[in-house]
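All the exercises in this workshop are built on plain-text protein records. Instead of coordinates, the fold is spelled out as a row of discrete tokens. Once this layout is familiar, the rest of the handout is easier to follow. The record below serves as our worked example for the rest of this section.
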Amino acid sequence: MFEWENLRFFLAVAQAGTLSGAARALNVDHATVSRRLNALETQLQVRLVDRLPRACQLTGVGEQVFKLATQMEASAFAVQRAVRAEHSPTAGHVTVSAPPVLASNFLAGTLGAFRQRYPQVQLSLAGQTQSVSLGRREADIAIRLYRPTEPDSVIRKVGSMPFALYASLDYEHLEASVRWAFIAYESQWADRAHQKWLLGVAAGRPIACGVSDITTQHAAARAGVGVAGLPTFIGDNDPRLRRLAWDGEGFCPDIWLVVHEDLRHSALLRAVMDFLVEVFGQRFDAQP
């Protein structure tokens, strides 16, 4: 019989496509992944992975084992979720994944109130641009700025986040809209809805700089670099910025809360979700 832990390392290699990618996913070193994979192949007496110079490619039997191992992993996560659903609402650990703009500029400010209400619950807040897998327990609850479509998930709209145009009070072209230059995203984020909206607003006017996230766009606007499209809950509360008049189409993404359906009735997660619904409702319009 093979060791189950070795199978977990094989799955990581198959999913990442490289030994180094699997090592990063598992937070171990490259040598550990290689050793575990070798051990599994020795135990099964078959080669599962062809180690190419820049990638790992599954063999024919490796593909079969990967499909079966994926089903086993899904069942293991289902067991974890079933147990987690029975936890007490007053004690435990919950991880919430949220876009960095909300994690840093809004949710972090609510952690004190949460701690006072639920002192025995350790809440981990992960500001992440990429969507995490709730089925794989990469987070317990996720906040998204688009309507989630994952299967086996329960979603709820908890608000909408309107944007407006802002510039520093010291911006040299504050009163001359034809000379505005815009603070946008780096080219790798060209497919973001926010970026597409901002480029439409720019309508051919120059892009002053491209950055990776809204928090940095805010900092660049404060520094007088140009005009930024910021959430109004950030821009309106910054005395160093002025909201700029603009008659075009607005941008207002919805905010969604999502949890795996196996955990929707967990008393522990229910307490956290109720808190999130409450604080979002106090700040953002949550009407359908």
